Amino acid sequence: MKKFYCLLFLFLLPVFWYAQEKPNVIYIYADDIGYGDVSSYGATKIKTPNIDALAKQGIRFTNGHSTSATCTPSRYALMTGRYPWRQKGTSILAGDAALIIPVDKITLPKVFKQAGYSTGIVGKWHLGLGNTVEKNWNSPIKPGPNETGFDYSFIFPATADRVPTIFMENQLVVGLDDIDPIAVDYLKKIGNEPTGKEHPELLKMKSTPNHGHDQTIVNGIGRIGYMTGGKKARWVDEEISFTFLEKAKRFIEDHKKEPFFLYFGATEPHVPRMPATQFKGKSGLGYRGDAILQLDWLVGEIMQKVKVSGIENNTIIIFTSDNGPVLDDGYEDGAVTELNGHTPSGNLRGGKYSTLEAGTRVPFIISWKGKTSPRISGALVSQMDLLASFASMFHIAIPPNEAIDSENHLNTLLGKTDKGRDSYVEQGSTLAIVLGDWKMIPPNKGPANTGSSLTNIETGNLLQPQLFYLKDDISENNNLAEKYPEKVKQMEVLLNTIKEK
Ligand code: NG6
Ligand code: CA
């Protein structure tokens, strides 16, 4: 009899192994959406029903963070599980930058690969390509997403406002043409195409003074950087998200029978905001608001695709943003003039580029239909923690000295507990430290505001230390540094310890 049970156990072993939970994971990374930009986070001037539906069936984090108040560093941290400021060259990258993610270290997609998943990225990349700035855009470029953990990639290289304005599928620009080769330069003008600076009359959307965005014109929009050739490969801004959505749906369709990880990097509501005709004018808040509606629609389309694929109860959908919001980020798109009382940062201070809360505290929703009990969680969590958390889900060991800043908070991310991180470093114009309910911004030179003729955002810079008790003062209005100097000291020491780790 004993023998029988033994044999039965051995026979069932593979069944147990397969029964280990391997939900599909779709990570939707919005670009520049703010804490107050979606209705489930309190927006009243704009409605985001699909994102709200996701929040309603999942966990809505009220203290969820990117690491940084701009894109590249936040994405670097998500991928590597390391604070970006540990590595030089992780600030906003040019469109021709070299890859900054190490190819020989663990990454978030590699965690999934090790667990037997198919991995794909569709959308914005902005982490560099190839080994050097100089590259031939007309032949395969590597290393890139495929060398850092993605089996499949369909991306645009940097941002929607940076050249080259093209898509790439697995190392190769889509739509290459031998007789019209692509060249890109960020230092000098190349080719003879008009620039926004020389020919503003050709623009369908003007760039705002002092903001650049006046180099090569593509699709009637002045860009950062110079580009020539590749006329057939260039995107039409109004169609970018349809293209990404189609590729994402295809990826889901092709992999619905196996576990998959899909990183979906939406471009909304980053500049240039040039939504599709069906969304133009729909929000009443200018193109920025329309772009948010478009983003919400995208989220709904992805949710629907998951549903009709019959994998709803086996799919985790995460929605979050790479940094806080900005209104005027370089184009006359009505974001400021048609704001109509909308508050993109909600009740937080600051925004994109800022060390204040709105720089990194962003909408953060995790839904696993049928598994997560819907709730609101105030736990302090970071996108950077997904790496260690999923590694723990799959019992994967992280190699020593890799992903050193990623913490395992799987139970928190799945809503089983509200215990999050004890401490966290937020990167804006300087590094701030959060410890429990306290936040300290060390003294920092530099203007208190990015400037009313520029993005007009409070930076958080002050020559004195700033100490806030976030629990009672989420809007960082009450500087307690003078009252609690020992707390300031303690947090300064902690920040230095983390920096030296
Ligand atoms: C800035 C751009 C801004 C935006 C940002 C990157 C200027 C003056 N401003 O340099 O428009 O592109 O870079 O945004 O050029 S991010 O979300 O990718 O970090
Ligand atoms: Ca961004």
From TrEMBL:
GO molecular function: hydrolase activity
UniProt signal peptide: 1-19
PROSITE patterns given in the database record: SULFATASE_1 (PS00523), SULFATASE_2 (PS00149)
Domain (Sulfatase N-terminal) ranges: 23-395
Alphabetically ordered keywords of this record: Hydrolase, Signal
InterPro entries: Alkaline_phosphatase_core_sf, GAG_Ulvan_Degrading_Sulfatases, Sulfatase_CS, Sulfatase_N
SUPFAM superfamilies according to UniProt: Alkaline phosphatase-like
Chain coiled-coil ranges: none
Pfam families linked to this entry: Sulfatase
Family that this chain belongs to: Belongs to the sulfatase family.
Name of the molecule in the record: Arylsulfatase
Species per Swiss-Prot/TrEMBL record: Chryseobacterium piperi
